[in-house]
Amino acid sequence: MSATENRPRPQPRAIAGGVSMRDLLASCAAAEAVSTPPRLPDPGTGGTEATARTHPKAA
Q1: Alpha carbon distance 27, 30 (integer Å)
Q2: Whole-angstrom Cα distance, residue 46 to residue 41?
Q3: Which residues make Cβ contacts (< 8 Å) with residue 44, sequence separation at least 6?
Q4: C-alpha atoms less than 13 angstroms from C-alpha of 20 in its C-beta half-sphere
Q5: Which residue in 2, 34, 44, 56 has a CA-CA distance of 20 to 30 Å to 19?
Q6: Cα–Cα distance measured from residue 42 to residue 50, given in angstroms and rounded to the nearest whole number
Q7: Closest Cα to residue 19, out of 11, 9, 10, 28?
C-alpha cells in the first residue's frame, strides 16, 4: 500500500451557493405568485353580471 491509499477521503459537502433560507423561501413564494392564475370570482358574490340583473339602467 502506498501513502496515498491510507489517507481518508474527504466527504463531499452540500454547498448552498451563498443563498440564505429567507431569500430562498421568498423566491419560491414569488415564483408561485406569478405562476398561479388569478382565481375566478365566486358565482354568488355579486360580480358585474349579478349587478346588471338586479339593478337595471334607468330609462
Answers
A1: 5
A2: 9
A3: 50
A4: 3
A5: 34
A6: 11
A7: 28
Per-residue b/e over 12-35, b at no fewer than 16 CB within 10 Å?
eeeeeeeeeeeeeeeeeeeeeeee
52: cell is 346588471
Amino acid in position 31:
A
| Residue type present at position 17 | G
Is the separation of the CB atoms in 48 and 54 below 8 Å?
A: no
Distance between CA 34 and CA 27 in Å, rounded? 11
Degrees, nearest 5: CA angle 15-21-25: 125
Greatest pairwise CA separation for the chain in angstroms:
103
